[in-house]
Amino acid sequence: MRWWQIRRRNADLERELRSDLESEEEEQCENGLPPEEARHAARRAFGNATLIREQTHEAWGWAPFEHLWQDVRYGLRQLIRNPGFTVVSVMTLALGVAVNTSIFSGVSAFLLRKPPVNDPDTLCAISSRNLLKSYDLAGVAAPDFESWRKQNDVFENMAAVETGRSFTLTGKAEPELVHGDRVTPDYFAVIGVMPSLGRSFLETEAQAGNKHVVILSTTLWRGRFHSDPAAVGTDLEINREPYRIVGVMPALTGITAISPPQLWTPLVFGPEDLSPGARANHFIDLVLGRLKPGVSLKQAQSEMDSIAKRLAQNYPTTNKDWGVTVLTLQEHRIRSENVRNAMFLLITAVGLVLLIACINIAGLLLTRGACRAHELAVRSAVGASRGRLLRQLLTESLLIGITGGGAGLLLSFWGVQLLSAGFNFNEAGRQLGAGLRIDQPTMLYTLMISLLTTIVFGLLPAIRSSKAPPRGALSQNGRAGAGIDASRLRRMLVVGEVALALILLAAAGVDMRDVLRELSEPNGFNPQNLLIASLDVSSRRYEQLDARIALFQQVTEKLRSLPEVEAADVDSCVPMGWFYSTSFDVVGQAQQPSSVHPSADFFVVGPEYFRTMQIPFMRGRGFSGPVHTHEPVVAVVNQEFARRFFSKEEVIGRQIEVEDGNHKRAEIIGIVGNVNGSVGQIHPHPQIYECYLQIPVNAFSTMTLVVRSRAPLAVLAPVVRRAVWSVDNGQPATIQTMQDLFKDNMGGDKLMVGLMGIFGSLALVLAGVGIYGVIAYSIAQRTREIGIRVALGAKKKDVLRMVLREGSVLTGVGCSIGLLPALLLPKLFSGLLSGFAPQGSRVVIAAALIVGLVSWLATYIPARRAMNLDPVQALRSE
Fold first, then answer.
1. Beta strand segments in 652-776, E
2. Residue 638 belongs to what H/E stretch?
3. Considering only CA atoms, which of 773, 763, 862, 814 is closest in space to residue 362?
4. What is the pLDDT of residue 630?
5. Local structure of 709: helix, strand or coil
6. Are the beta carbons of 287 and 142 closer than 8 angstroms?
7. How far apart are CA 524 and CA 759, in angstroms?
8. Which residue, 106, 111, 137, is CA-closest to 124?
């Protein structure tokens, strides 16, 4: 029977029952009974009509659905009759679901969403691995790439990529600095995404002299050429040289980096790149390979390990202790961006918030079950089975779950927008935030947690409420649910809430303390009134060292002559941005094996750099004295370098040899203070500074101009740009203040602190609501007792003290349980987040005090109400 026939069949059944009953009544009248007695006799002979209806419905097979519909309608009526309970329950669950959905959207975007390529599960990212230094995702040398491509039997093809390279667009428009990738011609075939206009690179275009072709991103094509298809085949001036546009790629998110490239040019290997000695130069950022059909990732790793061992045997000088890492492209992105641990912490935090919300709902359901004990006892007494009662209570819990989940989903759209806006601290953050959305996995996750949490946390209150004995519930006039066991369970739930709230609040405090430590950490230089600008020296115009030196000198001399400028110079790596690390040897000390050479941060700077940055000298001098190209090379080191590698020995006058193969030994002429190379650096790094007048700077495609201003920075920016263009009108002159650079680099940490602070605050509020509910309900159940106490002479302060004692015990037990896990949080954070200082016991103690204060306030409000109870009214209400 079809479900839409139920109403017609019910009408037929009613007519048939009525007809049978009338026939029986007529038969009794024919037997001589009066009409009234005949009617009663007919009903007795006919039997229970309701039972007949139920048995007939069961035979039809739709009785369970009818019962379910009855439960749903009754549950809705019950929720509407109790608006306070309904609103608190739904909003509590909605908040928990909303924060979980918002954060899960980030998990889906960063960890679950596959790269936008063809068959992403078979696309692998292949990196070099240093077996001694545990570098799993190191760059690849060009000769190694060629060996891998020729010797492997597991990949259909391989492509090499240099990611995030800087290109200057010149010509008619204002110079513009863009970032793009250099790729081998097979790159587009390997990723399985071809240009939407034009073509990909030809094999002949990966040869010297033929590399001046470019493929544009859709974004650059739309912005620079206004989506004109005729742009394909025309020339675009890049780094002052004409490049023929051969294609336009479809809109893609970043495949090999966070930010999608704006253009692609061929990656060309010259003879020096493929020489045996070049196997020590790991300049290729990434190698991509497409697995052959039927080949697993494990088989590919085994094959590449074998090739790496052969290369180590054939080239022990360069390839010893080097292996290969093979990952899916998705896993490589996750590891290189280092987002898994942060996502794990956030999803754990929001999970605890949801858990606290569910504990609150369970407490509310227990309290409501106690208040409904009389109703449930009556239903049980008239024949309702325990299973039917249990189903009814679970149905009401599911209604709360569905409503709360729907409300939480609506709130999560707003939450995802706020979370996406929180990533707007720099370009990489904006790219990450752009991927946040409520997608299908997020919707399924929301549905799952809404239903699962209400079933799990509604089951225990439902079981407890449904098993109350009818006689006891009826005799106690509705107070059966207020027994000792139910009260003890509600108190246990509140203790758990307090413990979880302490853990979350402590986590937020520990994270905040670390960020404050980063902000207060001495930088080693004065960032105030400091402006930085990039200088692109990657074009053929600056291939010769003399041309680069001339550019640096002319620009800095032009700036120093301006009244708005106090000092100006250049460096290779701006502090707080990024730094370049190199190995070196100390002349006169025992030489270490190549695999364990000491390393230091390496900076190439100008003669006035230390004065411009206001880095103090501890001993010796800088490069402002007689420093020329043909004189012996000199170097300046920092205090940490002197402490670590010379201990108590004399440093000035000693010689070091940096392992870049481009210059001679350098004599140390000065020691400066330690400078933080990155934001939040806990321990200072050894640092070496050498002057660009003495060593080649061909390894750097860009240098950074640093300018200290006497005028407001907003006034200085156009002045600096005009000064640079007066020397070279093709320079993009991308300008930024040092404070802005700080904000960019601290944006992720501040976002993490903000999120943890929100979660900790939510947990604290929910725990306070839970304590308030338990104490308020306890007072309501003890109204008669409190009235008798007051009538017998108990003072108000005694009643207040009694109630506060109950709340204090719950808070104290909860804080005691949560204190130990909270004290372990700094160590946990230091293991999951790089650069985290494993300290913070004071923060945990402060969090415990805050939880205690909020709990005391939540207890004090109902305690004041109990203290002011009128004993006459209290006894009369009984």
1. 655-658, 666-672, 687-691, 702-709, 735-737
2. strand 634-638
3. 773
4. 57
5. strand
6. no
7. 35
8. 137
- Buried b / exposed e along 128-157 (16+ C-beta atoms within 10 A): bbeeeeebbebbbbbbbbebbbeebebbee
Query: Can you read off the two tokens belonging to residue 541?
Result: 């115009």
- In this predicted structure, the answer to whether residue 554 has a pLDDT above a threshold of 50 is yes
Residue pair 498/767 in contact (Cβ under 8 Å)? The answer is yes
User: Is pLDDT at 201 greater than 90 in this prediction?
Assistant: yes
The rounded distance, in Å, linking the Cα atoms of 512 and 843 is 9
Locate tokens 């003399």: which residue? 546
Distance, in Å, from the CA atom of 187 to the CA atom of 282, rounded to the nearest integer, reads: 19
Confidence of residue 346 (pLDDT cuts 50, 70, 90): confident
Please give the structure tokens belonging to residue 830: 């230091």
Name the residue with tokens 């003290």.
Answer: 801
Distance CA 809, CA 412 (A): 36
Bridge partners, 168 (sequence order):
177
Distance separating alpha carbons of residues 181 and 266, to the nearest angstrom: 9
Alpha carbon of residue 800 to chain centroid: 46
> CA 190 to CA 201: how far, in whole Å?
13
Number of residues assigned to the chain: 878
Looking only at Cα atoms, what is the longest distance across the chain?
139
Q: Is the pLDDT of residue 836 over 70?
A: no
Phi first, then psi: give them for residue 793, nearest 5 degrees. 115, 5
Among 366, 533, 344, which residue's Cα sits nearest to residue 466?
A: 366
The one-letter amino acid at 181: D
How far is the C-alpha of 9 from the C-alpha of 2, rounded, in Å?
A: 10
Backbone angles phi and psi of 387, in degrees to 5: -60, -40
Q: Per-residue pLDDT averaged across 24-34, rounded?
A: 77
Q: Would you say the pTM of this structure is higher than 0.70? A: yes
At 791 the pLDDT is 74
Bridge partners of 290?
Answer: 123, 157
The pLDDT of 732-750, averaged and rounded, is: 81
Nearest to 668 by CA among 692, 687, 693: 687
pLDDT digits (tens, 9 = 90+) for 95-136: 888 888 888 888 888 788 888 888 999 999 999 998 877 678
Q: Name the residue type at position 444.
A: L
3 state SS of 666: strand
What's residue 156's pLDDT?
A: 93
Please answer whether residues 11 and 54 qualify as being in contact, where contact means their C-beta atoms are separated by less than 8 angstroms: no
Does the structure show a pLDDT above 50 at 363? yes
In tens, the pLDDT along 73-103 reads: 877 888 888 887 788 888 888 888 888 888 8
The H or E element containing residue 618 is: strand 617-620
Round to whole Å and give the CA distance between 364 and 766.
Answer: 12
Asked whether the beta carbons of 632 and 716 are under 8 A apart, the reply is: no
What CA–CA distances, in Å, run from 21 to 28, 31, 47, 531, 590?
11, 16, 10, 99, 113
601: nearest Cα among 667, 664, 658, 540: 658
Helix (H, G, I), strand (E, B) or coil at 208: coil
The CA-to-CA distance between both ends of the chain, in Å, stands at: 54
Cβ–Cβ < 8 Å for 98, 408? yes
User: For residues 771 and 857, is the Cβ–Cβ distance under 8 A?
Assistant: no
Helices and strands (H and E) in the chain: how many: 28, 22
Confidence band of 214 (pLDDT split at 50, 70, 90):
very high
Contact 621, 638 (CB under 8 A): no
CB atoms within 10 A of CB 540: 10
Residue 731 contacts residue 724 (beta carbons within 8 Å) = yes
